[in-house]
What does this fold into?
Amino acid sequence: MGSLTGRFGLVTGVANRRSIAWAIAKALARDGARLALTYQGERLLDNVRELAAELEGPLVQPCDVTMDEQIADLYQIVGREFGGLDFLLHGTAFAPRAELSRPFLETSREGFRIALDVSVYSLIALARGAAPLMAARGGGSILTLTYLGSDRVFAGYNVMGVAKAALESSVRYLADNLGPQHIRVNAISAGPIKTLAASGISGFGGILQAYRERAPLRRNTELEEVGEAGRFLLGPESSNITGQVLMVDSGYHVMGI
Ligand code: NAP
It folds into this structure.
């Protein structure tokens, strides 16, 4: 029996084995949690089904986070199958590739809208759906994933940096709204990791190298390290922590030059 046996979680943002959401899902499942995984479209269904087969009694459900009806259907099924929810991991983000390669000044209105809708509004919409299911369990924990580009300029991160700033602010407002229901809301700001989403950022190899050379720990962040930090923030061990952005980045954020 793991310490999360009898607890139920919803995880969005698993695209493949390299996804940060999958690293956190594995740590949660190892400790006994039962999970629902979502996929955005048929394109990723096989990947997600294959990964889910490694879990105990998983639910696999479609959810494009830009579609309110899909979010409503998802929570209806999660509520029926699980009877409540203990945690939500929001691992979803997207910006059109063109916005990550041209100068920030050239950000399009539509690219801005899409990046903020998929990467930020989705947290608010998913938290709203999760809240009654968490309240039914006496409380819960919500976690999202962010990056230091919210606060500092990383060439090529562009509109995603603006989205992450809005995401971190949303964490604080949601923590305040949901705290009275004993629901905590936090973020992990991870160091750069080579994933599908990261492959869209031009110059990502250079960012990885800068961390290896300059971060206090002089190395890059491992997926499993974010997995364990996520497991901590979603589990009962972090019961007094909310509204927080936890840096899991080899310490890079403390450096000047
Ligand atoms: P990833 O494996 O590509 O995960 C991103 C996920 O978001 C994918 O599953 C993607 O599905 C999903 N997604 C995009 N649009 C969606 C939509 N409309 N509806 C539902 N899902 C959608 O990459 P990752 O690096 O693990 O990213 C996870 C989170 O960590 C993101 O918030 C990212 O910004 C953050 N993060 C990453 C790093 C890094 O260096 N990798 C560092 C700090 C923070 P599709 O593939 O179908 O689009």
About this structure: The first strand starts at residue 8 and ends at 12. Residues 109-135 form the longest helix (27 residues).
